[in-house]
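Notebook entry, structure prediction.
Reason for the run: the old model in the group folder had no record of what sequence produced it. Starting over properly, with the input documented here first.
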Amino acid sequence: MATPSEISELARCRAVFTPGHPARTGTVAFQRTDGAAPQSIATGSVETLAVALPDGDGIDLVEVPGVVVPVQEALPVLTRARADAHAHLAVAFWGAAAVLAFQFVARGLLPPGLSPSDHDAWRVGPLSAEDVDRVRRLAAAMPPEAHAVPLDDGAPLRLPEPERLLRGFLDAVADALPRSPAATLVTGVPAYTARPPLTLPGQHALATEVAAVHDAGVRLSPRIEVTGLEDTVPDDTPPTFRAVLQVRSVADRR
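New structure, fully documented this time:
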């Protein structure tokens, strides 16, 4: 956990999110606006990153030292920095994104699945039309410094598309939050509870089916119907039980 003085300094830095694979391995880099190296924190490492910054009438690619922190460790910094009146716009933006991710996770919008490389991964979803609108409005407010790390695809200088980057951050938070030493002790298995990447070969088809159900906005749940307990039924008649599989909307919280 960063100290109050460390949070205060990092709040005044630029903040950029870099997605990881799987999502929970994404990082947040804090960079001072004067080009000096920020104060390091216990959970971070000082690295030099190439970022695209305004230069006159154009954009220049410059190398700037920064403190790179895993997403899970960056969350307390981002959320607390939002209350700092002197916080950089980029830090305030990612702090707002973290709060949005918390709200989605608290509502249970957290289906399990697999990453493209078959690693166990949680993600945010399914999102309602209202949720998607919130994501898009927040992405539209993303300051340039918040997505200043150029794409490494060998093409001319391009920056990440704001909405896609924001969704990657939401998934990174969702993938990180359920994982703790206690979670592994409760389940007895590392899948979906341990932080190190874990490959689950042969499960891609099942994960795709589960994702399809969640993305369709429906949930399967059993209902147990019992007969034979009425007063009119003889005492020596055993009750019968029937399990009925029902389809419900994810918007139904009953």
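Summary: Residues 4-215 form one domain.
The old model has been moved to the deprecated folder.
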